[in-house]
Amino acid sequence: TKLKQTVLEDMNREGKRRGLMSYEQVKAIEFIKEPFTIENGLLTPTFKARRYAVEKKYKELFQNIYKSVNA
Protein backbone atom coordinates (compact mmCIF):
# COMPACT_ATOMS: atom_id res chain seq x y z
CA THR A 1 0.00 0.00 0.00
CA LYS A 2 0.98 3.61 -0.32
CA LEU A 3 1.33 4.04 3.46
CA LYS A 4 3.74 1.11 3.76
CA GLN A 5 5.80 2.41 0.84
CA THR A 6 5.93 5.93 2.32
CA VAL A 7 7.02 4.67 5.76
CA LEU A 8 9.62 2.35 4.23
CA GLU A 9 11.04 5.17 2.10
CA ASP A 10 11.23 7.45 5.15
CA MET A 11 12.99 4.76 7.19
CA ASN A 12 15.53 4.13 4.46
CA ARG A 13 16.11 7.83 3.87
CA GLU A 14 16.81 8.28 7.59
CA GLY A 15 19.04 5.21 7.57
CA LYS A 16 21.11 6.62 4.73
CA ARG A 17 21.33 9.95 6.51
CA ARG A 18 22.73 8.14 9.53
CA GLY A 19 25.23 6.18 7.47
CA LEU A 20 23.66 2.73 7.33
CA MET A 21 24.88 0.39 4.63
CA SER A 22 22.32 -1.03 2.18
CA TYR A 23 22.40 -4.44 3.89
CA GLU A 24 21.52 -2.72 7.19
CA GLN A 25 18.44 -1.03 5.74
CA VAL A 26 14.89 -2.25 6.29
CA LYS A 27 13.68 -4.11 3.20
CA ALA A 28 10.02 -4.72 4.06
CA ILE A 29 7.50 -3.78 6.71
CA GLU A 30 4.05 -4.89 7.69
CA PHE A 31 1.49 -3.13 9.86
CA ILE A 32 -0.38 -5.14 12.48
CA LYS A 33 -3.75 -3.76 13.52
CA GLU A 34 -3.93 -5.58 16.85
CA PRO A 35 -1.97 -3.78 19.58
CA PHE A 36 0.40 -5.70 21.80
CA THR A 37 -1.23 -5.83 25.24
CA ILE A 38 -0.91 -7.73 28.49
CA GLU A 39 -4.43 -9.08 27.94
CA ASN A 40 -3.62 -10.73 24.60
CA GLY A 41 -0.38 -12.16 25.98
CA LEU A 42 1.99 -10.20 23.76
CA LEU A 43 3.32 -7.98 26.58
CA THR A 44 4.61 -8.74 30.06
CA PRO A 45 3.27 -6.83 33.08
CA THR A 46 6.33 -4.55 32.72
CA PHE A 47 5.34 -3.81 29.10
CA LYS A 48 8.11 -5.80 27.44
CA ALA A 49 7.31 -7.83 24.34
CA ARG A 50 6.84 -11.54 24.93
CA ARG A 51 9.07 -12.50 22.03
CA TYR A 52 8.11 -16.16 21.91
CA ALA A 53 4.39 -15.31 21.93
CA VAL A 54 4.86 -12.67 19.21
CA GLU A 55 6.94 -15.07 17.11
CA LYS A 56 4.38 -17.83 17.52
CA LYS A 57 1.38 -15.61 16.71
CA TYR A 58 2.97 -13.95 13.67
CA LYS A 59 5.18 -16.80 12.42
CA GLU A 60 3.44 -17.05 9.04
CA LEU A 61 3.55 -13.28 8.56
CA PHE A 62 7.28 -13.21 9.34
CA GLN A 63 7.94 -16.08 6.93
CA ASN A 64 6.03 -14.30 4.16
CA ILE A 65 8.01 -11.11 4.73
CA TYR A 66 11.32 -12.99 4.51
CA LYS A 67 10.15 -14.79 1.35
CA SER A 68 9.16 -11.50 -0.30
CA VAL A 69 12.54 -9.93 0.51
CA ASN A 70 14.54 -12.93 -0.69
CA ALA A 71 12.51 -13.46 -3.89
UniProtKB/TrEMBL annotation:
Keywords per UniProt: ATP-binding, Ligase, Nucleotide-binding
The keyword Ligase belongs to this UniProt entry's keyword annotation: yes
GO molecular function annotation: ATP binding; long-chain fatty acid-CoA ligase activity
Official protein name in the record: Long-chain fatty acid--CoA ligase
Matching PANTHER family: AMP-BINDING DOMAIN-CONTAINING PROTEIN-RELATED, LONG-CHAIN-FATTY-ACID--COA LIGASE
Domain of life: Eukaryota
Entry keyword rRNA-binding: no
GO cellular component: endoplasmic reticulum; membrane
